[in-house]
């Protein structure tokens, strides 16, 4: 359903050109839950915004395609994209979106506004109540103001609003940041239920691999604006191949281990990238070739691909 092809997003900055995404590919099938993970600043939100056509200056999509059922939505006129795609075919729950409600209107009013603006055919009151019920909230919540809801309730209400027009594709960018662990897990279960009941495809973005491990079908690992590795969830979690993925998986705390492994060092400055593999300064397996030539993604096992000179 979604095919992201060689997308590049650069930001102009006083430090020079920040190459936030530099040739990224990603596919999402109908009804699939795809995880996108990587540490802070690697470009996850930039990719989400790019797919949603929400990159603002000083940022720019300088190359690539975002195909939705075969149509490159980056080439559409803004008006056509707004009328046919945004909300109707895809919507986004973004980082901190639970604070995206306007404080002075009730939750129900704000959901009904979305229905009204986008010309929902049907009873708007009933639809609002159904949407709240779908995200396991008491429909009576519609008469409450945002500050009268807990963080988790607000996030659920925001997901309800994002699904108002029944889009087949949802982007959830760190949908559970700032929530407690129990609430985080319950939101993950909600996303899983929405996929099961409505067949909705989800791009689930997180820096917390442990949180998404139970619900994703496939995972992409982003590092410094490029894909390091991708594969099925079990391939990535059980048989990570790229040294960066191995480091990420090893840094997931378990109940048994007392010592948490980490990845030493920092991601390179995206305005001043080293030649060769962008991970080599931190890589325990670094070789001479890594410092000079950038590895391309290649098949390493079954459907698992990684960009690493070890393979
Ligand atoms: N307006 C901007 N101007 C310059 N650089 C920017 C701008 N917005 C983002 N960037 C840079 O683009 C890179 C990717 O940022 P992005 O927000 O996509 O990261 P992220 O992976 O979502 O991180 P996090 O996990 O912290 O949300 C970062 O290095 C960031 O500094
Ligand atoms: Mg982000």
Structure description:
This protein is α/β, with parallel strands linked by helices. The protein has 2 domains: 2-77 and 169-306, 3-Layer(aba) Sandwich (Rossmann fold); 98-166, no CATH class. 29% of the residues lie in helices and 25% in strands. The chain has 10 helices and 12 strands. The protein has helices at residues 44-51, 78-84, 107-117, 124-134, 151-162, 181-198, 209-212, 233-238, 243-250, 288-292, and strands at residues 2-13, 16-28, 33-37, 59-68, 71-72, 90-93, 169-173, 201-206, 218-223, 226-232, 298-301, 304-306. The strands form 2 sheets. The protein has an 8-stranded mixed β-sheet, with helices on both faces. A 4-stranded antiparallel β-sheet has the order 2-1-4-5, with helices on one face. A hairpin with a 2-residue loop joins β11 (298-301) and β12. The model has no long low-confidence stretch (mean pLDDT 94). Magnesium ion (MG) binds next to α1. The site of magnesium ion has 4 residues, from α1.
Could you say what the CATH topology of the largest domain is called?
Answer: Rossmann fold
Average predicted local confidence, pLDDT: 94
Q: How many helix segments?
A: 10
Tell me the radius of gyration.
20 Å
Task: Spell out the helices and strands N to C.
Answer: EEEHEEHEHHHEHEHEEHHHEE
Can you identify the CATH superfamily of the largest domain? P-loop containing nucleotide triphosphate hydrolases
What is the number of independent domains?
2
Distance between the termini: 30 Å
**Rough shape?**
globular
